[in-house]
Amino acid sequence: MAVGVLALQGSFNEHIAVLRRLGVKGVEIRKPEQLQYVDSLIIPGGESTTMAKLAELHNLFPALREFVKMGKPVWGTCAGLIFLANKALGQKTGGQDLVGGLDCTVHRNFFGSQIQSFEAELLVPELAAKEGGPETFRGVFIRAPAIIDVGPDVQVLADYPVPSDKVVNSAVASGSVGEKSGSNKVIVAVRQGNLLATAFHPELTADSRWHSYFLKMGNETGEGTSSCISIREMEDLRGIRAPKNDLPIFLS
After folding, report:
1. Is 143 annotated to bind ligand?
2. Cα separation of 213 and 217, whole Å?
3. 239: burial class by Cβ within 10 Å (0-12, 13-18, 19+)?
4. N or C: which end of the chain has fewer CB within 10 A?
5. Catalysed reaction per UniProt (predicted)?
6. Contact at 8 Å (CB) between 111 and 118?
7. 4 assigned to a ligand binding site
8. Taking the alpha carbons of 174, 85, 219, 222 in that order, is the dihedral positive or negative?
């Protein structure tokens, strides 16, 4: 199975490292034509506005939207969640393009600035049921977004408690009236068909269950067959690039 990782900016090297530990080839994606050689795609955390500008520069948005429409598995983490959302709040002046497809409203930088980044134990019953292990997962939130409203077809996989007035204010700003608005929690992990999204960074932990869960989505959606591409071709697509070992600073 060839898994693409959007490699414009952000934590793509960390995702590829986890995939390697699971015995799966990760292919760096920077051009639209490279998407035809992968069965699924991870859109990593990073600076979402910068990623959007680079994606626009390389004319990636039409190909990314088509990839989603084809039903191939796509996982967005942090900034990648923002990319997949149908609606995003708190964007910088001028906004940014979105890939869309995920029926939710996401609030960019909901949890605050870089210095307000944090880690938290999240209840993840669906993940534990499918992948085993503990009922909780250590979520790494780095200037993270949050989902404040979801459509009826979106499965909530994890949420996080916050002051209810913060959720209400965000919902009012979005014009959202969904059932999740106004509660004392925001949603931080969801699945809708072939789309998976997390507001946190599983690739920065030693727990690879989210990556394993995502890989199995290919079989569930009928996209689990291997691409006919040689190792040399994949290396040509990736380019000769030494992986970075230092952890970058992420800005959603």
Report:
1. yes
2. 7
3. exposed
4. N
5. L-glutamine + H2O = L-glutamate + NH4(+)
6. yes
7. no
8. positive
